[in-house]
Write a structure and sequence with these properties.
This protein is α/β, with parallel strands linked by helices. It has one domain: Rossmann fold, CATH 3.40.50. It has ten helices and 14 strands. Strands 7-4-1-8-11-12-13-14 form an eight-stranded mixed beta sheet, sandwiched between helices. Helix 3 crosses helix 10. The protein binds ligand 9Z3. Ligand 9Z3 binds next to helix 3 and strand 11. This is Phosphopantothenate--cysteine ligase. Keywords: Ligase.
Length: 318
């Protein structure tokens, strides 16, 4: 089934309730960093949902834990970029990603002596916690990171377009790193029931419609000068590079990071108009907890600097 246009999608879906607040935050953040000539990376992260009911009990989800986006955001900060971290609510976030589950509580000791309770970090955990805490504090006290969150696919698109509108003034200093796993399908609003679907009514027949490809207006209209990087997720190796290259040919942006669901944490392929470059972690590196995102972002920062060089911009901060 053919998809509607992106204009029709925005016309049919109201902006989320917190949209104006987020738009003001994005505007302030971009204007402040633009003033200083900083580079900004918009990192999208996590999966979008497609609600099956307006009062949503059930939804279709896109797979993504937010590992790629949250780790990459940290590396962009390390390279001197300001970061807009646009993420699925409750997916992994920069810095706190290191302490998911019970990890943080396991690092603490508690002593109860009479009315005084003291909580301390276990001596052998200080070495783990300190460097992360320092980087976290530095990023936040410098106002270098802004978090905005989405849940549904339409919330994602409203935020993405608003972020682009604010980033467009930065021209080529803006990087868009679109790692979020975005649904290709949705249910048109007028076919979504208000209340929870009842099993007594029998098995529901749900027809999904194609989401319009937002990369086209994004690259051509919203941020025509930005350095745009999209991600291609496949499960079949044979489709991976051909589909990544097809996307690059179609949308004419700067890079597609291609990855397979099964191997995404230790292998990616960077596809640019000029080359196809594989990044592969060794077994030892995986074991030692090396983030593949460090290498992806390093290469991206290098290419972005090359792209900026003709504009006379200084190289990225180390
Ligand atoms: C990705 O391919 C990301 O690398 C992952 C990261 C979602 C695999 P995790 O968050 O996983 O570390 O668990 N993102 C893009 C997925 C996507 O929706 N791509 C679209 C497609 O493949 C194009 S924009 O068609």
């Amino acid at each position: 089934m053919a998809s509607g246009t992106w204009e029709e999608f925005f016309a049919a879906h109201l902006p989320p309730p917190d949209f104006e607040d987020n738009r003001s935050l994005l505007k302030e953040f971009c204007e402040r960093h633009d003033q200083y000539g900083n580079r900004i990376a918009l990192v999208t992260s996590g999966g979008t949902t497609v609600p099956l009911e307006h009062n949503t009990v059930r939804f279709v989800d896109n797979f993504s834990a937010g590992t790629r986006g949250s780790a990459s955001a940290e590396y962009f900060l390390e390279h001197g970029y300001a970061v807009i971290f646009m993420h699925r609510q409750k997916s992994l976030e920069p810095f706190t990603r290191h302490f998911s589950g019970q990890k943080l509580l396991d690092m603490l000791d508690i002593q109860e002596r009479g009315p005084n309770t003291t909580i301390t970090v276990k001596p052998d955990s200080v070495d783990v916690l300190a460097p992360i805490l320092l980087r976290y504090k530095a990023a936040h006290s410098a106002g270098a990171i802004l978090h905005v969150s989405f849940t549904t696919v339409s919330e994602y698109f409203w935020l993405l377009r608003a972020a682009c509108e604010c980033l467009t003034n930065l021209g080529p200093r803006a990087v868009l790193y679109l790692a979020a796993a975005v649904s290709d399908f949705y249910i048109p609003k007028d076919r979504v029931p208000t209340h929870k679907m009842q099993s007594a009514s029998g098995a529901p027949v749900i027809q999904l419609q194609l989401v319009p490809k937002m990369l086209a207006p994004l690259v051509n209209l919203w941020v025509p000068e930005a350095y745009v990087v999209s991600f291609k997720l496949e499960t079949d190796e044979n489709l991976l590079v051909p589909k990544a290259r097809a996307a690059l040919d179609k949308y004419k942006h700067k890079m597609v990071v291609a990855n397979l669901l099964q191997t995404r944490h230790h292998r990616v392929i960077l596809v640019t108009p000029d080359e196809t470059q594989e990044i592969l972690l060794t077994r030892e590196e995986v074991h030692a907890g090396v983030d593949i995102e460090a290498s992806i972002v390093l290469e991206l920062v290098r290419l972005h600097a090359e792209h900026l060089a003709p504009c006379g911009a200084p190289p990225a901060a180390p």
